[in-house]
Specification:
mainly alpha, 11 helices, 287 residues
């Protein structure tokens, strides 16, 4: 469990660094076009900053998979929510953004939530119960419909580029959450043999990740960087935390005080994350 949380913490740092690097590259690349995905991907990877960000993101993904194999999904995602702390520091110190009081309050609230989660963390989870399969299908389908709905709404807001970008960021986050749930299922299933990876959930994880890649890149081109990244992170973590509790029966505590403490902690993490995407002033960052 402890090693899994450490890996999740490092993953949170590298994930937000990757997002900021990809944003710097995405805004220099031609617009992502749904009808030309291969050309759009090639244009993105021709941007040096985007390519570097993508390589960092791959490393973060490997850390994420390792963390999922060692710790409950909801706990891993709660730690990743705390990555908004890293996002705030990196964005202000190295990428030319100025955070206001609201953002720093969100930072402190998120950190407090993570501290409570650490204090109340229980033992490692057991095997995935077979009766969780129905919940797995329900959560995955619900998240997919939510993402598709947001993407459809965002198309109607093309006159409001910032809102279109933020809605696409939420849609991308929901798809990342779908991928995380499928990956967690696969990390449990692989204990019974490598052939367990030949599964519809492997296809679900891959498809969700590919679509999220394009949605996220376009959202970074359209919306304000920090707000888009924060909303993407919040959506991904909320979907995955819900999946951890409903699908994998992640514990919320073994006694009344522990249960209340864990619920308060998750609430603090979500509230802190929600405070992050507030008004920000972009300063003259590095080109």
């Amino acid at each position: 469990m402890t090693l899994g949380l450490v890996l999740a913490l490092v993953c949170a740092l590298t994930t937000n660094l990757a997002f900021l690097l990809k944003h710097r590259g995405a805004v220099l690349a031609p617009p992502v076009r749904v009808r030309h995905p291969l050309q759009s991907a090639a244009d993105l990877f021709r941007s040096r900053w985007f390519m570097v960000g993508w390589v960092v993101a791959v490393g973060a993904w490997l850390l994420h998979v390792a963390a999922l194999a060692l710790a409950p999904l909801s706990i891993v995602q709660a730690v990743l929510s705390g990555g908004l702390v890293f996002l705030a520091v990196l964005a202000e110190r190295y990428f030319g953004f100025k955070l206001g009081r609201r953002q720093w309050i969100g930072l402190l609230v998120t950190a407090a939530g993570l501290a409570v989660i650490g204090i109340t963390s229980g033992s490692a989870e057991g095997k995935v119960p077979s009766y969780a399969a129905a919940a797995l299908v329900a959560v995955e389908c619900g998240a997919l419909c939510f993402a598709i709905g947001l993407a459809a709404i965002s198309v109607r807001l093309r006159a409001l580029r910032a809102w279109e970008g933020m809605l696409l960021g939420v849609a991308a986050g929901a798809l990342f959450g779908v991928s995380d749930i499928a990956l967690k299922y696969l990390t449990n299933a692989v204990e019974y043999g490598v052939l367990e990876l030949v599964s519809p959930w492997s296809a679900a994880a891959l498809l969700a990740s590919v679509v999220a890649f394009f949605a996220s890149a376009r959202s970074l081109q359209l919306g304000p960087a920090v707000e888009v990244i924060a909303l993407t992170s919040v959506a991904a973590n909320l979907i995955a935390i819900v999946g951890g509790i409903l699908v994998f029966r992640d514990p919320i505590g073994s006694g009344p005080l522990e249960i209340i403490g864990r619920m308060v902690a998750f609430t603090l993490v979500v509230v802190g994350a929600a405070l992050m995407p507030g008004p920000m002033r972009a300063t003259h960052g590095r080109a």
